[in-house]
């Protein structure tokens, strides 16, 4: 495990401890129990995603990103990732604030962030860092902005491709602006920002609850949901349960194979993106459709280079991948819920091999007893007249990804089994 993550991001089972000083000349240190209130899984820069700034990076620009936290708190910190950087990344300055409309922030809420007491910091290539605590009261399901001023040329940026919400860019230093007028450009990805943690909220005072990390691919990431409306399946779950929820999905991700476009394989990134999130006690695993579906799409001649040379994956191989995730979670004291693969009939991921493997894998998830609980999305979202297909009322239009109603239905199922 990355040394920084061992030091700063252990889950609730071995609670992360920050240090803050109480006032006065005889100040003493007391521990801070951080809880991940929002997260995004880092990806390497890729020119394959349209309308993003990852390949070109930033220079003398301010980047303002809006995220919705799922836990109330009285203090906040941010986590930044240069995981795929090939050179050190200098953050000239950063702020956090309660969000207003668009790129604007709430008057009086801007807080300058420090890193080991300084307003600037340098993150080494392939490194990570966390800010010091900032006094900022936020509510659960409230949006905050994180604003980074990047005075020096960054080079290609570690990012999260599919944010499905607007991020903003301005020339010059606008980190403390309340107005959003300077932010004339926008895109729907997140850059360098890997997490927002809080402490001091009501939920964090309830022992034994802990956070829930939803791990998966584009279905977890929120593809097909209404953009800018926070209606992804993790958002819908956060609305239903009195526990923090973080989204550890990457669109196109696979359990067993790395992809230059869609991130490291699930078995490799699970520790970083789930187990090292502070306060996480439960993981929900929904991944595998791309492992079997990319092969079918490639075999059918779909002209998408993102499918790369897709291997033919068996049910036994995919089950071995799930067993690796379960073992990793249990070793860290994290409960793991297995979710069955959604129906994929009629999509570009469908074919005889994918149908057979999906059925075999789903039956194993339901009956093996190896997961601590099961969320049966396959049966939940299937068309009763054609169980190989997702029901029309839950289909976003591609026969693969749910719409807002489908994501809400999935959230209700997870809430039931937690």
Automatic annotation (TrEMBL):
InterPro entries per UniProt: GDSL_Rv0518-like, SGNH_hydro, SGNH_hydro_sf
Keywords for this protein: Hydrolase
Taxonomy, superkingdom: Bacteria
The keyword ATP-binding is assigned to this record: no
Location of the SGNH hydrolase-type esterase domain: 214-409
Xref: CDD domains: XynE_like
GO molecular function, one term: hydrolase activity
Amino-acid biosynthesis among keywords: no
Name of this protein: SGNH/GDSL hydrolase family protein
Organism expressing this protein natively: Streptomyces polyasparticus
Taxonomy of the source species: Bacteria, Bacillati, Actinomycetota, Actinomycetes, Kitasatosporales
